[in-house]
Amino acid sequence: MREITYLEAIRESMSQEMRTDNDVFIMGEDIGIYGGAFGLTNGMIEEFGPERVRNTPISEAAISGCAVGAAMTGMRPILEIQFSDFVMIAMDNIVNQAAKMRYMFGGKAKVPVVIRLPGGSGAGFAAQHSQSLEAWMAHVPGLKVVQPSNAYDAKGLMKAAIKDDNPVLFYEHKLLYNVKGEVPEENYEIPLGQADIKREGTDITIVATAIMVNRALEAAEELEKEGIHVEVIDPRTLVPLDTETILQSVKKTSRVLVVYEAVKRGGYGAEIASMIAESDVFDYLDAPIRRLGGVATPIPYNPELEKAAVPQVNDIVQECRKLMNK
Amino acid sequence: MLYDMMLIRSFEETVEKLFQQGKIHGTMHLCIGQEATAVGACVPLTKEDKITSTHRGHGHSIAKGTKVKGMMAELLGKETGYCKGKGGSMHIADLDVGNLGANGIVAAGLPLGTGAALTSKMKDLGYVVLCFFGDGSTNEGAFHESLNLASIWDLPIVFFCENNLYGMSASIKEMTNIQNIADRGIAYGIPSETIDGNDVLEVVKATEKAVERARNGEGPTLIEAHTYRWRGHSRSDARKYRTREEEKEWRKMRDPIALFKEQLIEESILTETEFMELENKVQVEMDEAVEFAENSKAPSLETLEADIYA
Ligand SMILES: Cc1ncc(C[n+]2csc(CCOP(=O)(O)OP(=O)(O)O)c2C)c(N)n1
User: Fold this and answer.
1) SS3 for A211?
2) Chain B partners within 8 Å of A139 (Cβ)
3) DSSP bridge partners of A232
4) Mind spelling out the 3-state secondary structure of B203-223?
5) Three-state SS for A169?
6) pLDDT one-digit tens code per residue, A278-320
7) ipTM for the predicted complex
């Protein structure tokens, strides 16, 4: 099958939706002729024109509210926040407006907006351009949170996000943008709330998100050589969360490691760990659930420090070894 | 128009009474004294046109055609309320008549309204959006960013500032260094004017012009209407930041309802008897609303988690 990058997969998904649904349009800073900070929207303005590939001023407080206002009145906007870090300036519109509107209005509003958020560290952008704050969003009732780890998923999840009638936060990892994967040309959808077993195994379940899925898979290869069979589960969406697939896997393996890039403290991994601990499969566990997350530090600029701030393949390998010795 | 203004005042007085009787909980922001801005601004709007409103939104809702029955039920937290009892005073919305909702966040309605205007333009729907906001919200970033956005995109929107001289206790004089809020339109290339917001006909005239500009694709307008809120900011306000003389002056000399009534009587459009008839009609409508609200059921606990996701 044809291979394209994660970035191209997202672009293709948006373009296909824009061709079939006139209500879908994209807006954001520099997304027109410039193609966006990462070139993700390259060529889209040529096909769809400046009305539907809408360059905005650097005004996160207004463009986020504008996208929400357009969504509640019948459009299906996709808003690109240039770096996920800048979403802080848009928080009111997302957390106080988009997330709550439907509920506050007694179920009478729909807010079909997708907010694309390039996040994560590893590219040398330092502390204000590298954060992973998806847990903030996952905490808020009314929002959905998506975190694709490969090109195939990115395309299918984007399509589902656009079709969803709720506000969806679509986290893209900057380091994954140029990673290629097999992606069919035709349109397909991956429902939100469906985890994927990226690798089968019998000894340890690793639940990993975004780029940590790739690192967990590499670690699993390593561990295989030592006779440790790792199963890797990618929830793909934090909200809604597919608890069933995770619990089934834990039943099978009896050991769990949760890996995520965000700061470990207060991160979403704690949610997954507690969910398992509170469930019926707790009795199946042969060892305490372990979490591997980012160090509680702003992301440093120096490349070695930057690497040390978030889990790497070797960290995962070591955690798994510890877990097996329990 | 007169009827709507009287209905708003009566609604607010009734709400105040019910609150004192302990029948409404939480807080509310009354717009007594500001009836002419709400009603006048909505006169040029059709049902398809939309408004966004503020924490002080009861008047805007009524003026846009939202019914007092459902509003009262909402304030009493009943399932028959516009938001099924989950929104309360600060979140009344009625999308069917183009009321996109009151808002608990100062200035939040401006970007939302800008988005609704973008929909109108992109889908060629022809409707106009009118955003209500207070003087206090014009110091929020969202105000400035929204005006700029609406201006560069020529959106069909009217930014309508109710300048009641205070944002909670903050006097406009202390919080901005300019004479007129309308001047802020200049920075964004938006035509703007300052008007007497207690003269309902002047409000209608200014908004009519602005709505027409918007409908003709000529872009946004900023209107600053001077008015005054008679009551405190919300329920627990000792009003230490302003004098009783100032309040009396506005109530005696510049009551928008009395002014309009006088004018109508002077021009022989209205008689005292007709005015009293209107008063009775308002009372009947209000009594019905209260009765409806009081007799409505509270939402069941099963609805706690309903309507979070579509
Ligand atoms: C973002 C935000 N900051 C502060 C508040 C608290 N607050 C509610 S209303 C208000 C005053 C607003 O003044 P203005 O915009 O002039 O409207 P008015 O009350 O005069 O109608 C304040 C400070 C809020 N609700 N939202």
Assistant:
1) helix
2) none
3) A199, A206
4) HHHHHHHHHHHHHCCCCCEEE
5) strand
6) 999 999 999 999 999 999 999 999 999 999 999 999 999 999 9
7) 0.88
